[in-house]
Fold this sequence. Notes:
Layout: H1 2-7, E1 29-31, H2 42-53, E2 57-59, H3 62-68, E3 97-101, E4 111-113, H4 116-128, E5 133-137, H5 141-144, E6 147-153, E7 156-163, E8 179-181, H6 186-197, E9 205-212, E10 218-224, H7 238-249
Parallel strand pairs: 1-2
Antiparallel strand pairs: 3-4, 3-5, 6-7, 6-9, 7-8, 9-10
Amino acid sequence: MLAAWRAAGIEGRVERWDDPAVDWSGYDAVVVRSVWDYILRREEFLAWARGVESVTRLLNPYTVIEANTDKTYLRDLGVPTVPTHWSSRDLPDWPEYVVKPSVSGGARDTTRTADRGEAAALAAALEATGRTPMVQPYLDMVESEGETSLLYFNGRLSHAVRRTPMLVPGMGVDDNARAQLRTPAPDQVELAEKVLAAVPHDLLYARVDLVRLPGGAPAVIELELTEPYLFLGYDPSAAANFAAALRELL
């Protein structure tokens, strides 16, 4: 990515978000990237983001990051999403369940089970630690049709990939970065752009993760606006697309 920035006339460097020695005001902009440890200390991360935005431009903006780092945002998207039950009580009768906290990443603390009682107990354990549980049906189509991620830079579709399913036996967290380029279907593009049109902020980057429900309609499983893996190495033009979008916003 930094090489693509240089080719676009942008000087950049990598900094750790929690390094107290960094003078963030010395940069024209700060681009949030691989801050995957924020899930363990979200409030500290949000305080950092708020502070950075007070002295320079933050991409994506703080308001977006604050909302997007808790997956309860799914309740407010206003588009079809994967069915989600937000409590340990009165679980729907589904063949299989996926249970995870609303603040998570990389399948951390995520469990797939066919046991309704176990799913309820896992959700209750999250509630006992002050976290909001998400209970969703496991969708077999993730293994056949796959999960499609559409990557947008400054509102333009750059590329899309079919991601390796993470909760299939034998797959690990490291397999999250494995994917294949995919041409998204028109109904997937339509849904992704409807979601992004509702965000009232300029977005340097966005990843819209979609699955198909049993009836075939696409649904949002996640809208990644904080620290998504962007699969830049999968498309020859992706890094240049990212750099062009950053130059436009600067």
